[in-house]
Design brief:
Distance between the termini: 30 Å
Bound molecules: N-(tetrahydropyrimidin-2(1H)-ylidene)sulfuric diamide, zinc ion
Number of strands: 15
Strand content: 25-35%
Order of helices and strands: HEEEEEEEEEHEHEEEEHE
């Protein structure tokens, strides 16, 4: 919609993060994209996703100036995802969100151009083949990100613990301890139905190392819960001009002939 375009243009001017870099690594498998349902290809070989998350590996929640992220101890294979389109086991390192200033937009991916109010990304790296995230981030099969759409509706009880921690990390680079959070509570009840394609990170380093798995079923969060996301700031406490953390999504990228597969017909 026009207001969203205005917000994205404003973003490009105001936030260096969302000014597209001149040179993009590779450039023909960038994310996010619009998932065109009628162009997606059902693949019966796609298996259900198998997530196995240990809440004890949850370490901290912090504001990195792009989003807020919950970080997990990824020194062992305690919180992992496998199955689905994946050949290997991938270790959870963090999850974060993208959202708009209005409930009318905020997601990075869209489905037949439908915008959601926000999008959750659970970021994992291939621990069968690599020993560090920093290594995997450069490799074609290095990362696996689960995307979940958020829609404004009923309050999400599991999310509230996270929402209650946000006022303590309002500014960029603020961090607080955050333990025993089970990210499985943020997954939709049905994780068997998803779209998958090869793409990139949507924030720097934008490397084309991601197997995306975007859930067909969204989760619901309340208007008030999303309003707390919008109370965060892009800026550090010592900056003169404070900027509200909203519209922290990347503009959509061309599909470049890529096929999006679906795990459901
Ligand atoms: N939005 S995204 O694609 O997950 N981008 C990321 N960039 C840095 C590392 C984690 N994720
Ligand atoms: Zn993201």
């Amino acid at each position: 919609c026009c207001r969203m375009k205005e917000a994205a243009e404003h973003n490009m001017k105001m936030h260096p993060m969302w000014q597209e870099p001149l040179a993009i690594p590779g450039g023909d498998r960038q994310s996010p994209i619009d998932i065109v349902i009628r162009k997606s290809v059902y693949d019966s070989e796609l298996k259900p996703l198998v997530t196995d998350y240990d809440p004890q590996t949850c370490q901290q929640i912090w504001n990195n100036g792009y989003s807020f992220l919950v970080e997990y101890d990824d020194t062992t294979d305690k919180s992992t995802v496998k199955g689905g389109p994946l050949q290997d086991k991938y270790r959870l390192c963090q999850f974060h969100f993208h959202w708009g200033e209005s409930n009318a937009w905020g997601s990075e991916h869209t489905v037949d151009r439908k915008l959601f109010s926000a999008e959750l990304h659970l970021v994992h790296w291939n621990s069968d083949k690599y020993s560090l995230f920093e290594e995997a981030v450069m490799e074609e099969n290095g990362l696996a990100v689960i995307g979940v759409f958020l829609k404004v509706g009923k309050r999400h009880e599991g999310l509230q613990k996270l929402v209650d921690a946000l006022p303590a990390i309002r500014h960029k680079n603020s961090v607080v301890d955050f333990n025993r959070f089970d990210p499985a509570c943020l997954l939709p009840s049905n994780t068997d139905d998803y779209w998958t394609y090869h793409g990139s990170l949507t924030t720097p380093p934008l490397t084309e190392s991601v197997t995306w798995m975007v859930m067909k079923q969204h989760i619901e969060v309340s208007h008030d819960q999303l309003a707390v996301f919008r109370s965060l700031l892009f800026t550090a406490a010592d900056e003169e001009v404070q900027k509200g953390m909203v519209n922290n999504f990347r503009v959509q990228q061309s599909q470049c002939g890529r096929t999006v597969r679906s795990s459901f017909s």
